[in-house]
Amino acid sequence: MTQDNTPFDHRPDPLLGSALRQALAPGDESAFVAALMGSAERAGAASWDAVLARWARVGVAAAVIIVFVAGYVMRRSPATAASRLAPVADALLTPAAQGAEVDVVLTSVIDD
């Protein structure tokens, strides 16, 4: 491929450059905001709080459904072995369940 065949030109395009500078140049901020709000109003865009309110209702409804489904699943599932085990504190403090090793461990912890 030779340089004559490439459509790319590395030099700046003066027409495109001036159009971009004009579009991106900082101007009157209040005029920009007024134009933006006017175009949003013409497009029928809802305000930000109306959009959040609409999404909040959907989010709360989804959360309620998830809580009910989780409660139903937890009630219907059989108890696991971990839930039937006694808590660690009860196992350590109940004399009938303690062996000689537990006494040694408790004595070493209490003496420190």
Biggest β-sheet strands, sense, barrel: none
Low-confidence stretches: none
Structural class: mainly alpha
How many extended strands?
0
Number of helices: 6
Distance between the termini: 84 Å
Radius of gyration: 36 Å
Shape: elongated
User: Percent range for helical residues?
Assistant: 55-70%
Order of helices and strands: HHHHHH
Strand content: under 5%
Mean pLDDT: 76
Notes on the structure:
- 69% of the residues lie in helices and 0% in strands.
- The protein has 112 residues and is an all-alpha fold.
- The protein has six helices and no strands.
- It is elongated.
- The relative contact order is 0.03.
- The longest helix is centred in the middle third of the chain and has 29 residues, at 48-76.
- Among the domains are: 48-77; 86-112, no CATH class.
Please give a handful of descriptors for the protein shown.
mainly alpha; elongated; 112 residues
SSE order and pairing:
Layout: H1 14-24, H2 29-43, H3 48-76, H4 81-84, H5 88-93, H6 100-111
In short:
This protein is mostly helical.
